[in-house]
Design goal:
Layout (H helix, E strand, L loop, with lengths): L1 H6 L5 H8 L10 H7 L37 H14 L5 H14 L1
């Protein structure tokens, strides 16, 4: 109810499939069934060092029905994913560079 008050109606999985061009979408409450169906042996979170800009670290997400004892978290692989995502923030296309230059020019 609180979410809907600020963000509007909860969108169905089909909406996310269409918008993000993904094969499958599940609600967070279905995480345990999805992990079981995939025969998952470990979890991979976007969790690594502190954020390079803010110095803050993301807390581990709490997934209903999934405890670390059931699906261990591979911290080494989580760090690799974190580093790769952070590296992607540094790579800019020519269009992104143009937008950044424009923002710099109008604010200077």
């Amino acid at each position: 109810v609180e979410y809907q008050k600020w963000c509007g109606p909860i969108k169905p999985p089909a909406w996310f499939q269409r918008v993000y061009s993904v094969d499958e979408v599940m609600y967070l409450t279905e995480a345990k069934q999805a992990a079981d169906a995939l025969a998952a042996k470990e979890l991979l979170y976007l969790q690594g060092d502190a954020n390079r800009d803010s110095g803050l670290q993301l807390p581990l997400p709490k997934l209903a029905g999934i405890e670390d004892s059931t699906f261990p978290v591979n911290k080494g692989h989580c760090q690799i994913l974190w580093d790769e995502i952070n590296e992607c923030r540094l790579i800019k296309s020519a269009l992104e560079q143009t937008v950044l230059q424009y923002a710099n020019d109008v604010s200077a």
